[in-house]
Amino acid sequence: MGNVIGIGAAPKRKEDQRFLTGRGNYVSDIKRPGMAAGVFVRSPHGHAVLRGIDKSAALAAPGVIAVLTGEDVKADGLGSLPCGWGISDAKGVPMKEPPFPMLAQGKVRFVGDMVAFVVAETPEQANVGAELLKIDYEVLPSVVGLLEAVRPNAPQLFDDVPNNICCDWELGDKAAVETAFRKAAHVAKLSLVNNRLIGNPMEPRAAIAEYEPGTDRFTLWTTSQFPHVVRFLMGALVLNIPQHKLRVVAPDVGGGFGVKQFHYGEEAVITWAAKRVRRPVKWVASRSEGYVSDRHGRDHVTEAELALDETGKFLAFRVNTLANMGGYLSTFGPNIPTNLYGPLLGGVYTTPAIYCNVKVVFTNTVPVDAYRGAGRPEATFVLERIVDVAASEMGIDRVEIRRRNMIPKEAYPYQTPVLVQYDSGDPMGCLDGALVAADVKNFGIRKAASASKGKFRGLGYSTYVEACGLAPSRFAGRLGARGGLYESATVRVHPTGQVTVMIGTHNHGQGHETTFAQIVSEKLGVAFENVDIVFGDTDRVQFGMGTYGSRSLVVGGAALSKATDKVIAKGKKIASHLLEAAEVDIQFEAGKFSVAGTDRSKTFEEIAGAAYVPHNYPLEVLEPGLEEQAYYDPVNFTYPGGCHIAEVEVDPETGTVTLVNYTAVDDVGTVINPMIVEGQLHGGIVQGVGQALFENAVYDEGSGQLLSGSLMDYCMPRADHLPMMKVETHSTLCTHTPMGVKGCGEVGTIGSPAAVINAVVDALSHLGVTHVDMPATPNRIWRLLQNASLPVAAE
Amino acid sequence: MKPFAYHQPDQIPDAAKLLTSIEDSKLVAGGMTLIPTLKQRLANPPALVDLSKLGSLKGITDGGATITIGAMTPHAVVAASKLVQTKIPGLAALASMIGDPAVRSRGTIGGSVANNDPAADYPAGVLGLGATIITSAREIAADKFFLGLFETALGPGEIITAIRFPVPLKAGYTKFKAPASRYALVGVFVAKFAEGVRVAVTGAGPGVFRVPPMEAALSSNFDPSAIAAIKIDTDGLTSDIHAEADYRAHLVTVMAKRAVDAALS
């Protein structure tokens, strides 16, 4: 018998047994009898009229089974890819929502837009078939930049979307902000770009679809973070397949980061194709294909202004942002730069008035959607950068100006002027902890040591809060969500007392199989090894919303906790019968049901056995079996936060920025498995550092070509780019989640870009440098030094 | 990958014959550039002629005043060679900086030099040391070998069999790695001989090139300070999403100084 391994313990991850021994089961590992291969033909142009496709040569090629195009989609009367959020402008006018056909119809709108699907006996034959398609394009000028796209004479993606503006969205009290600005002693201003990112999960996207004529059922295996949502969106809204006739399986998935939390056209096309060709069909994206089809992230151009009084108190914050949507609206697209951005502009500060305007803009680029952090890193970056700018301009220490404006611990719950109410937090505690952990008091010594080598050293702070645990459905519904955002769990206790959990979240690197098993082990007193977590299969698991937005533990874990409580409650009823005691006298502790004040007890296994062999059982009042299900819809977001401190060294000769120290003190609420939390923070921080220093998706204006379309050109952060990180938690408990958890999946990515860039600016501030756009590449830093207002020389 | 015929000759003349008799056929040495190109379906050669069975192309030999490295010698072998480390430590260092361990285990000196990628490391070492490229047909001086972007003096059916390096008094290589690819954004090889100094630059332009003003300055004073003020003309240098031409020009001077430092250490 194994042991209980509960909340707060750090067992090694259960799932690593199969991952580290090469026994994972990914979509590309799956083979189905008679499986054919599919290849997508994608637009090589950023913007073009699709005049016609001649399939004849492709169809005549050896092994080619079918060639499907947008015309076939139209002929079959299929729907367009749905957007899960409908936002509106200040007057309540809904966003422009042009159709997003699963295969292009009439026009292509980005390099990578899908034009045809070729099915053949082998991938090689499908590739040959794809090369034989004769596609007649009338190439149009592309527009890829935000500032360019909203100009009056810019190329128009859609005839009925003037100036390419999908929605002119706003939040906050504009008049109150204007009044506050008139009274301000100082106004800090900042223009910045939040660079476009490509998620690059380790496993490229892939899908297999199969149709069984005997039962009229479809199965789709897909690299998804939310198989039930794919079943719903694709079945109900695109392909008209009844939900009970469609099974979606997302088996082991090699990383998501948001990239796999959308319903993609590839999924719909391959499912539709499987029925048409009466064969299972498989498609596996290449890395290059992923670059031009995986949804991208970020991509903002922002003007921000912060009004302050003479003591450095923030009076008002005004933000105007252009946000790139790419060529079409993706599943969550318009929600990210609006609802997940504006409400976070208060940060950890008491700023009384905030106004935010976001113009959501179409361009000839890959659709933009959620990428780890999704809106919240962008908000944190704007705020934490302008706080540094204001501090510098007013001659106030950067830590001091943050302290003067921070929400004190005792002021929680705290209502911000931008919708959200923070339930709990202690930003000052995180800041104080980080100052110590980062050894800020000896920074001067380290800076002098760098200077003696001709290097500039800088320190950067980011104190942040984010909204996690997506999401309270009622709140989300008011903001335009077209679905619910609850989560579900079923706890199935077997006759022998082992437990299988079916949960609606999806594990693709987060360690859910371990964390959730710890919760069950702790609550039911069963051995950790006797708990398995099942997810990712709509035939095995009840409806769930999947994994994104740091929601799995917060929302899914809460559902699991509730379902576990129901198991205990039923167990008590069974125990009261078996022990011949009143139900109120039954206590459950450490895996034992006992009668209070006596030595009479039944083990959890005995109760489970009785539930399934109900010879002596209260059948009159209780059904046999021991399996409970719960759905949980949160009452509020959770608000993890913290303080990150980055320390960089800049080589003025080459412009190279080296991250030399990194400290994070985060408030993530209750920690279930500290090892997993630390890993999540490490991974998140690395992705934020990637955005700050390395990653940049670059398009060519005019042609719409992606210039950074490979790992050779798009720089992912690597181990040798990073120092050892110091990661600590300083937790306050969430007041409304069952276990006090807040979530930790995205915090690292949210806190880190601002900390790193603030450190770079600090390192160069003696030269008159006040801002650096991301990524702070060597070329960009060198250029800044060339143009610096003060001469470059090591101090 | 499109289908192709595959040949694995065990004699150099057989390899040369296959190469000339099959139009558009390609040699494969380590395959570090060719195989990815085939996988991306960007090249469609009817046949590959694999040089891996030609044992005579492997190995490093000590010629006293020279070192000769067989064309099929992998980078890792050059990097780990006691002979190279002792006689031309700058060349061993260069080999140790190429790609990653997997690339260094498979990639070969002959393949790299024949491919003449504008950002590859070996061309800087070969040109900087004034090496001689020995082929199945003749010997070619490095100064006459590299003809620009992926272009070399190799004729049809001509196969590099070895490269002969003169042993310098001192030599050093430094590169500024392109952040994503880790190819040389700018790499500079500096070699000091009794008769003078050679400076070769890779990564900065469409092909490897020498920098005569630096060579002259270093020939009279082999010290980083001698070239600190020498600026490279940006004309003809590469400008792309990773680095603008003037930044590359600036890096040539910085990397050249550091290469001299490396040679002196």
From TrEMBL, chain A:
Listed A to Z, the keywords are: Molybdenum, Oxidoreductase
Boundaries of every Aldehyde oxidase/xanthine dehydrogenase a/b hammerhead domain copy: 21-141
Keyword Oxidoreductase in record:
yes
Q: Where is the signal peptide?
A: none
* InterPro entries for this protein: Ald_Oxase/Xan_DH_a/b, Ald_Oxase/Xan_DH_a/b_sf, Ald_Oxase/xanthine_DH-like, AldOxase/xan_DH_MoCoBD1, AldOxase/xan_DH_MoCoBD2, AldOxase/xan_DH_Mopterin-bd_sf
What's a Pfam family in this record?
A: Ald_Xan_dh_C
Which SUPFAM superfamilies did the record assign? CO dehydrogenase molybdoprotein N-domain-like, Molybdenum cofactor-binding domain
Superkingdom is Bacteria
This chain belongs to the protein called Xanthine dehydrogenase family protein molybdopterin-binding subunit
* Organism whose genome encodes this protein: Bradyrhizobium diversitatis
UniProtKB/TrEMBL annotation, chain B:
Which PROSITE patterns does UniProt cross-reference here?
Answer: FAD_PCMH (PS51387)
Q: Which domain of life is it from?
A: Bacteria
Q: Does the keyword Nucleus apply?
A: no
Q: Which UniProt keywords apply?
A: FAD, Flavoprotein, Oxidoreductase
Annotated FAD-binding PCMH-type domain ranges read 1-170
Flavoprotein: is it a keyword of this entry?
Answer: yes
The UniProt entry, under InterPro entries, shows: CO_DH_flav_C, CO_DH_flav_C_dom_sf, Diverse_Substr_Oxidored, FAD-bd_PCMH, FAD-bd_PCMH-like_sf, FAD-bd_PCMH_sub1, FAD-bd_PCMH_sub2, Mopterin_DH_FAD-bd
Q: Which PANTHER family match?
A: XANTHINE DEHYDROGENASE SUBUNIT C-RELATED
Name of the protein in question: Xanthine dehydrogenase family protein subunit M
Native organism: Bradyrhizobium diversitatis
Which lineage? Bacteria, Pseudomonadati, Pseudomonadota, Alphaproteobacteria, Hyphomicrobiales
